[in-house]
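go over my protein:
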Amino acid sequence: MHPQLAADLAALPDLLETTRRQAVAHLDGLAGAPVVPARPAPEPAPLPERGTGLRDALRDFTARWQPGLSASAGPRYLGFVTGGVTPAALAGDWLTATADQNSMSSLDATGQHLEAETVRWLRTLFGLSDAHDGTLVSGATMSNTVGLAIAREWLGERRGVSPAQDGAAALGPVRVLSGAAHSSVAKALSVLGLGRSALVTVPTLPDREAVDPAALERALQEADGPCVIVANAGTVNTVDFDDLPALAALRDRYGCWLHVDAAFGAFAALSPDHAHLVDGLDLADSLCIDLHKWLNVPYDSAVQFTRRRDLQARVFQNAAAYLGPLGDSPDLVHLTPENSRRLRALSTWFTLRAYGREGHREIVERCADGARALGETVAALDGLRLLAPVRLNVVCFTLADSPTADRLAALADAVAGEVFLTPTVYAGLPALRAAFSNWRTSAEDVRRIAAALAEAVRALPAR
């Protein structure tokens, strides 16, 4: 063994304790740290020819890289939809790296059994029936991609071909209909060989991001053959929800595939006050839910569900002598693009086991309360304009006067030490989004965010 490896192995308990103290100090400082530090990138360093061990590497990281890291695990990082990491999920992630399992085959099956239990718990959490089988993937983009890959194979089944075997070209033209599809849907269609142009945007309801069911029906009537419908259970800008029972009825009437992108909107199911938003979620043929958002487990983790695991295995089956057979209960290696991956289910198992449905319901409801309170503040604040109702956990707003992209960027920069907001465009207007999904966010954080916005708006140069 290399002498430096041997030395670090001998000193591992002490080195891990040093790392633990540094991790705890980082977490303890999140509440007061700049949310996005204004710090240039360090000067590039060459690859060391001879390493000097973990302790020196930790010192180098602490000096050069850690000061520039954002407080994305903290309570006022409201950009994108970014959760933090619950204490139980953090412990699960440490143990994931410690055990270093690649549980994709029944030849080494304990990790697969743990993932199966975790998926059953998730299915219960979101109110899904046993008709849905699930698999963990890296994020919502991959979840949407897997779901649409299954939909692609279903289209082939209807047309007497197998895209998995014969290629996407065997399908002929494909139409994927959606009112306000997430950008990952177009990326998935590109990856799957269906093409971005297969995505057809259907008109939405007035002043909404939810698809107009009447317009969708007209598009289905005009389509030449079976289509894929991509429904939204929580849009990015305003957390709007399609009428899933109505879309499922259209699916049945016209013989379509219904894929539901519920990346973070599915968590409405945990709250009695918001569960009606996801009525009909179980009717989906395939379903995307992100876990490193509102479940507050570490990146990267999501789950995909489908009613047609047989088609999923047809797409992703991997034939090799050293792998288990496909069978009626396919190993994980036959269900996603990955042949190997970490045991990402363990963090999810830990947080569900530690806090249960009740604990995660409290996180969802506290975040929804925070979004509602900030929305009320924005609506009442001179200089800002709320662009849509706060339906769940996102506040979408702009400047009341001269809402240009440059001025909104200046506003976001002015508050970046206190809160991280991301830009968007809604109804043709440049805007900002505040997305609440972190388990640590409190009413006091909302007050700090509101105060920072009020001060920044007052200081913003007039146009």
Remarks:
- The CA atoms of residues 92 and 98 lie 10 Å apart.
- The chain has a mean pLDDT of 96.
- Residues 101-346 form a domain with the Aspartate Aminotransferase; domain 2 fold (CATH 3.40.640.10).
